Amino acid sequence: MNFHVLTLFPDMIEAGLHTSVTGRALKNGYIHLSAVNIRDYSKDKHKHVDDYPYGGGAGMVMQPEPIYLAYEDVTQNMEKKPRVVYVTPQGSVFNQSMAEEFSKEEDLIFLCGHYEGVDERILEEIVTDYVSIGDYVLTGGELPAMVMIDAVSRLVPGVLNNEESAEFESFHDNLLEHPQYTRPVEFRGRKVPDVLLSGHHGNIDKWRREQSLKRTLERRPDLIETAILSKEDEKYLKK
Ligand code: SAM
Question: Which candidate, 99, 116, 140, 107, places its Cα nearest to that of 57?
């Protein structure tokens, strides 16, 4: 899968994603990343990419031309026009099912805004998806783009090894994951639940499922309505 990020801060994208699991995936060729500096496409002699907003008001707005030229360059050899995600606090809030949908694309372009945002006309011209990472305002779109690329990458086959499998994690069935424990058996007086030491896989699975339901009810009750529940789950929830 190929990620293309149109940004004023390509170094931030490169540094953030060339580490840990995404770094390994990039090195092994499961995913590809190009961080494209919008400033390189400015025709202004001082390489300006922003200007004052028409109508007045605070801050600067990113101009459409350099972004369009960067977009044209990135897409020139592509057979079909890829999805272009504008990361914006005004978008739908990113979630696991969006990550799954995006992971099926061959190419995905992210447009990162800065300052007061981006001239509306370039958004109308190239953007297919408006996506936010939450109801707060950041200084730029680089962190949101990295968040989304990280979440999408780990769903690309080969990126995670067996030990890191994404199969039974939070949001699988729309439930939160059960609590996890590792050695030692006792830490500051807190013991690992006996069932996990029992070696009885049936009981362990049942305990984990119940913990998952309990945790979702406590922390994210809004998820339960759309969770995929079995008859056993329903019984547990009625208790
Ligand atoms: N004036 C804009 C508004 O009120 O919607 C906010 C601009 S913000 C300071 C600069 C850029 O950061 C945005 O263009 C967007 O790309 C990015 N950004 C900020 N918060 C974000 C969020 N919660 N999710 C995704 N992108 C965000």
Answer: 116
| Dist. CA 228–CA 217, nearest whole Å | 14
Model confidence at 173, pLDDT cuts 50, 70, 90, reads: confident
- Residue pair 211/199 in contact by the 8 Å Cβ criterion: no
Nearest in space to 26 (alpha carbons), one of 51, 1, 58: 1
What is the best residue among 5, 60, 137, 148 to mutate for testing ligand 1's pocket, by most ligand atoms within 8 Å of CB? 137
Strands (DSSP E) found in the chain: 2-7, 32-37, 50-51, 61-62, 83-93, 107-112, 129-132, 186-187, 190-191
Domains and CATH numbers, the chain: 2-153 (3.40.1280.10), 168-238 (1.10.1270.20)
Asked if omega into 53 is within 30° of 0 (cis), the reply is no
The ipTM assigned to this model is: 0.99
